[in-house]
């Protein structure tokens, strides 16, 4: 809708779909190479999230076909929970619509990814997206739809019952894309996806030829993730106002206990006493100023426990190490983690692995592989907090030069990932995250330093042992001839025993 002022200036508002249509580079759809990569990434991400919802071992198949004049189709199939038929149009045809806005770790964040891919497909090839999906209580439905950009609504072309053998979803998008340039990145992304989701199996076919069959490194499903209530320290006026709208009839103390995690009767009584609030005042009677004071007090009070971690799903030590050694040729690998901690009331865990091996690029500082909520981040690596921390560390202290190529795999999981842009590639600098990343990486540096020290020491010992045993053999030969004996006594055992004693000291 537009409005012209007498001055001749026109004011208008645009829909979210129109905004992302105009600014598609912000969401990772800036050029044909990035667009193919982002399409695969968004579809795979959704598939893995859905398999997690269904609590199944993910089987994700990607099938890419090169067509004429740089057109391609990307088809991604999964065995996830499927999409209820009444939700398909909005989930795939409306920007900022989704099922992942709750307080729990999810790969998806914005309700934007797949619709951006659909939008990019339709503006570059004028083709609709095809969605074939089946949930537990349906036989299967097939939709073809466009996005009505001006109104941010789906434009459904076809909608029919269509049998699908298994529960899950298949999405097919035709788009203009440079597959030749994107292929290497896509393969790296999929390989790394099996590092961060080790129980998933992923296949990639390009023009009917198999390019990758990877994964299945772990035989255990991660524990279920449970959404949690907001932590009091994460509250701002907007959230508080909405909670009050929902629970206006409750007294303040009931409201606190029911609406937030980590507030029980005792904690609420302590908080209210300390802040001098009346526990029995009914929420709907609070003035705007009083609510503002309450929001401020909730954020500042330091008597609340750390946020809940049941809403998080770190990879874990054995799965992380096992997946890395399955995907890469690794000489040694060590794990460290920090958390659960919080940033602005959002719980987070940082876990990382340091590994050496010839598969990694050689450089003065370790090569960094970044992951957020189990998603590999491949673009904009120089830009984020994780890279900044890595560069701050004085790596020469840990004798990295003698290890050969070194890599660090770092995974941040949180109910909220502080992405710098809608393309979800690099992380903003949050002091708490920066601090714990620094600690984890330093711990890994020390572990690597110890391994290097040990191998330097054992190389020195070996050299000493060789020299010693040479001299001892000479002494034995000399003493044998002095004593006029024929047989030279063996000395190897003696040397070994001597060095065993030495190294145990
Ligand atoms: N393969 C799938 N299986 C089940 N549900 C899906 C699938 N793909 C998409 N969805 C549903 O469609 C919604 C919209 O997906 P979309 O990728 O646009 O957003 P998102 O994943 O919520 O967040 P993000 O913008 O970060 O990707 C999802 O929240 C999910 O509910
Ligand atoms: Mg998504």
Provide an overview of this structure.
- This protein is α+β, with helices and mostly antiparallel strands and about 500 residues long.
- It has 4 domains: about 15-215, 2-Layer Sandwich (Heat Shock Protein 90), CATH 3.30.565; about 230-300, Helicase, Ruva Protein, domain 3, CATH 1.10.8.50; about 315-450, Ribosomal Protein S5, domain 2, CATH 3.30.230; about 450-505, no CATH class.
- It is about 40% helix and about 20% strand.
- It contains 13 helices and 15 strands.
- It has helices spanning about 15-20, 30-55, 90-95, 115-125, 180-195, 235-245, 250-260, 265-275, 290-300, 315-325, 385-390, 430-480, 490-505, and strands at about 1-5, 10, 60-65, 70-80, 130-135, 140-150, 155-160, 170-175, 200-205, 210-215, 330-345, 345-355, 365-370, 375, 405-415.
- The strands form 3 sheets. Strands 7-6-5-8-4-3-9-10 form an 8-stranded mixed β-sheet. The chain has a 5-stranded mixed β-sheet with strand order 11-12-15-13-14, with helices on both faces.
- A hairpin with a 2-residue loop joins strand 9 and strand 10.
- The chain is globular and about 120 Å long.
- The model has no long low-confidence stretch (mean pLDDT about 90).
- The protein binds adenosine-5'-triphosphate and magnesium ion (MG).
- Magnesium ion (MG) binds near residues 42, 46 and 108.
Defining traits:
505 residues, alpha+beta, Helicase, Ruva Protein, domain 3, eight-stranded mixed β-sheet, five-stranded mixed β-sheet, 38% helix, binds adenosine-5'-triphosphate, binds magnesium ion
């Amino acid at each position: 809708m537009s409005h012209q002022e007498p001055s001749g200036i026109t004011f208008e508002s645009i829909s979210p779909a129109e905004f992302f249509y105009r600014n598609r580079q912000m969401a990772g759809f800036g050029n044909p190479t990035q667009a193919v990569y982002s399409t695969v990434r968004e579809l795979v991400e959704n598939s893995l999230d859905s398999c997690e919802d269904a609590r199944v071992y993910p089987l994700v198949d990607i099938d890419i076909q090169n067509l004429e004049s740089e057109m391609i189709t990307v088809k991604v199939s999964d065995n996830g929970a499927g999409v209820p038929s009444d939700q398909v149009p909005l989930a795939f045809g409306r920007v900022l619509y989704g099922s992942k806005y709750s307080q729990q770790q999810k790969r998806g964040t914005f309700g934007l990814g797949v619709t951006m891919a659909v939008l990019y497909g339709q503006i570059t090839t004028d083709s609709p997206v095809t969605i074939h999906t089946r949930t537990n209580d349906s036989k299967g439905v097939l939709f073809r739809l466009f996005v009505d950009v001006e109104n941010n609504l789906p434009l459904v072309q076809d909608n029919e019952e269509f049998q699908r053998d298994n529960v899950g979803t298949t999405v097919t998008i035709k788009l203009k894309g440079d597959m030749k340039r994107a292929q290497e990145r896509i393969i790296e992304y999929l390989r790394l996806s099996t590092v961060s989701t080790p129980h998933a199996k992923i296949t990639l076919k390009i023009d009917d030829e198999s390019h990758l069959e990877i994964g299945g490194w772990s035989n255990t499903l991660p524990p279920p993730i449970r959404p949690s209530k907001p932590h009091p320290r994460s509250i701002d006026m907007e959230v508080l106002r909405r909670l009050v709208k929902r629970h206006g009839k409750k007294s303040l103390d009931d409201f606190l206990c029911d609406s937030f995690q980590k507030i029980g009767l005792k904690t609420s009584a302590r908080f209210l006493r300390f802040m001098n609030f009346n526990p029995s005042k009914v929420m709907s009677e609070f003035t705007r100023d009083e609510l503002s004071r309450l929001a401020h007090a909730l954020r500042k009070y330091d008597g609340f426990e750390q946020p809940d971690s049941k809403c998080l799903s770190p990879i874990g030590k054995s799965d992380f190490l096992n997946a890395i050694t399955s995907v890469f040729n690794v000489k040694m690998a060590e794990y460290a983690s920090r958390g659960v901690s919080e940033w602005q009331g959002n719980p987070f865990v940082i876990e990382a692995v340091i590994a050496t091996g010839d598969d990694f690029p050689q450089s003065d500082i370790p090569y960094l592989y970044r992951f957020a909520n189990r998603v590999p981040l491949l673009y904009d690596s120089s830009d984020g907090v994780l890279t900044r921390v890595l560069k701050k560390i004085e790596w020469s202290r840990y004798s990295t030069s003698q290890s050969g190529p070194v890599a660090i795999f770092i995974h941040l999981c949180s109910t909220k990932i502080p992405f710098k842009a809608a393309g979800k590639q690099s992380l903003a600098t949050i002091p708490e995250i920066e601090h714990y990343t620094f600690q984890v990486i330093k711990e890994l540096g020390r572990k690597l330093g110890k391994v290097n020290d040990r191998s330097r020491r054992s190389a020195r010992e070996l050299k000493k042992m060789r020299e010693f045993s040479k001299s001892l053999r000479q002494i034995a030969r000399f003493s044998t001839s002095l004593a006029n004996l024929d047989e030279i006594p063996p000395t190897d055992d003696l040397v070994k025993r001597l060095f065993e004693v030495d190294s145990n000291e």
